[in-house]
Every structure is written in structure tokens, then in C-alpha cells.
């Protein structure tokens, strides 16, 4: 079979592959270190990776893939109960970590192998098949213990090659980001993506606008981030002309993992002349859609289906929506080689996730424009509000609220209402806590922009919104 990373066995060995802070590896260095580790762990079955934002994590995952072994990335911020569940569920035979890392108690009984990023030795031949597991990535567990999504090697190659097509991504690109490496965004797209292309990745360690400015001024061509990062960029731009110039030099600014508010899109575009593009994916599906580099960067949308991905919207009864008008809300279902194969040890959950003819039920609600662009309006479980006979997506109301100058952050949920079925509830972090906008003012603001039936009936004021590591608002925490 073809290699996941052709640049490791051919091409320029002196080209920079990875840089984390002041530590770096060329392709020659990476080939030696990952090949040596792959030979050491061959036949291990399954390995856990203590996924800190370091060279060691990248080398460990590449080595596991070269050895044909499934890697289980572990979030270093996970609590002991969650770690214990992941380890008992995935049953790795050993854990890979950076020398000197202190591992928590649940990992104490596992055979540990320290990753030496300067090792040299023989390389094993890649012998795994396209359908063999590459990664087992655990979902966030919002509805119970985290489930392990088994991602086959073909899913990784399909997603990365489809993104290369959509983004005109080549080995000449240099990617900068500060994303965690235990998640699909930072690990698969942000680390394995550049390595598959033969390009470079510069990891910031911890995100900062200063780091973004420095790297884009020093030849980086692409920036990946989550909405929280782009929000900080948008806030910093008025007082930071160097940041605006640096962003203007980037070939591609990409946001993902959650919706980027339209307000932040517009602030960044006005200051830099560059549009942030969004893409849409999940742990289980990797990437499904994206705004293309050669397409229209339409704020508030996640673009069109990627090559090789089938996407449809369905009604509540499962009937496909056949006419796309930019208004009708349906659940996204997808098919393609980018999908996971199963939830580990959960045949019941796997069966429930798919339709009889192989479509994956994403649980995400969206509308689709006549030209194919997809606009996500929220999660079926938390963001679809049925009020007064209407199906309303929380996302568009949140975007409208964020256009009010008195609103710094916003989240929208539904709560039971005897008359309407559900009423719309807004959770607001005001720009000025001493003088927040009134509930009636916000309701009128939304009604003017969208429609009267989409106005919030209840407004709560908060100091901050609860978010997870990827910047997603945890709405279940809001609803108690």
C-alpha cells in the first residue's frame, strides 16, 4: 500500500517538518526518530499517546502509524475517572510519552516507552491495510462516558487529500497553529496534514496573537484556529497593525471545531482584507465540507461537500430534503471513505449512528443554499428549538445577538413553554457588565434582523460562558 507520509521516504530530508517552540525536526530527523520508535513498538497491538503539544507526541503518532498500530491520543487535562474509562475501554499495551513527563495514576500499570526524538535506527516497512485502525479518538462524552471512534487509515488519507484539493494545499505551505494534539483538529489536520503534503508545521505551544504575527511574518502561509482564537485576534486587531499586516500575508485562514460568529468574520476581513474560511467535520467523520480556496468565502457557512463526501439533509422522519432553499432546516447525514468504522466495544451505539443504507447521522442541523453551500444552525440535541410551530436554529440567533454592540458573547437555548412548546432563551456576556442591554432591546434587535418568532423571550446575564478545550460552548451546563 502507499505510504501515509511519502516525504519520510523520499524528497528533501533537510526540509523542516515540525517545529514546537525552539525545538524542530527535519524530514530526515523525523524519519529516523519515528522509524526507530516504530521498530521498538512493532506488534504492540494498540498504544496510548500522552498527547502534549510537543515533538514527542507527533513522533509517537507517526511511529504508531508506520508500525501499523492504532494510537489512542490521551488528553493530559482529563480527570482520572475519564482516563480510567478510556484505558479500560481501549486496552492499550503500552503508553508513549516524552521523557520526564509525570503520568497520572491510571497510567501507572502500563508499560511506558519514552519517545527519543533524536534516535536513529532501522525503519520497518509499512504493511497495514486501508481499513486497519489508525487512531481511536474519544468523543467528548456529553451524553455519557466518552466513546472511542475507530478511524481507519483510509479516513485519514481521504480527508487530508480532499482538503489538499479544496485548499490547494501543497508541500510549499507552512502551517501555524496552537491547537491541542489529542483532538482531530490539531492532530490529524494540523500535524498529519502538513506531513502528508511534505510541508511544515510550526506549533505555537500556547496560542497568542504575538506568535501568530511572528510566524506569518516569517513565511507561514496558513493559520488554523478555533473561534476563541479568532475572537481574540478580532479584538486585538484595532490596536495591533502588525497583526493585521501579518494576517494579510497569509494564503489561508481556517477556523473550525465550532461556528465562527459572523461579527468576528467581518471584523477580521475589514482589518486585514482576508476572509477566514470555515470547514465542518466531526471526530467520527473527519472533514465533510469546506469553503474552497478558489470558492466564495461566504461568512456563516461551512462551504460545500469535499471530494468523495456525500451529504444530504433529512426531515425528522428521515425523509431526504430534495429542494434546497437556504431556509429549510434538516439533519446532516454523510457517507464516504472519510468515516469511522465503529465505536470501540459499542456495537449498539454504532448501529444507532448509521442508517440502514450507510448514512451517518451527525446530529447537526443545517440549511443548504441552492448552490450547495451548507450553513449549520446547531446540534439537534441542544440547538434545535421548536417554538410556535417553527424549527429554529440557535446559531443564527447567536450571530444576530453578537451584532449588538452591548453583547460580547452569546449562547441560545430552548426551554419548555406551555404556549409555544419551547421558548428561546439567550445567555449573554455583556460588553459592559455595569450597563448591559435590556431584554426588550435584545429581543427587538433580533426580531428586526431575523423574524419576530426568533426573538429571545428570556435573557440571562453571565460573566463568562462555559466552554470546553476546543472553545465550544457547553450548553448542557447552561441548562443545568
From TrEMBL:
Matching PROSITE patterns: AMP_BINDING
Q: Which residues form the AMP-dependent synthetase/ligase domain?
A: 12-344
- InterPro entries, per the entry: AMP-bd_C (IPR025110), AMP-bd_C_sf (IPR045851), AMP-binding_CS (IPR020845), AMP-dep_synth/lig_dom (IPR000873), ANL_N_sf (IPR042099)
Matches recorded under Pfam families: AMP-binding (PF00501), AMP-binding_C (PF13193)
Location of the AMP-binding enzyme C-terminal domain: 396-472
Give the family from UniProt. Answer: Belongs to the ATP-dependent AMP-binding enzyme family.
What the entry lists under PANTHER family is as follows:
ACYL-COA SYNTHETASE, ACYL-COA SYNTHETASE FAMILY MEMBER 3
Name by which UniProt lists this protein: Acyl-CoA synthetase
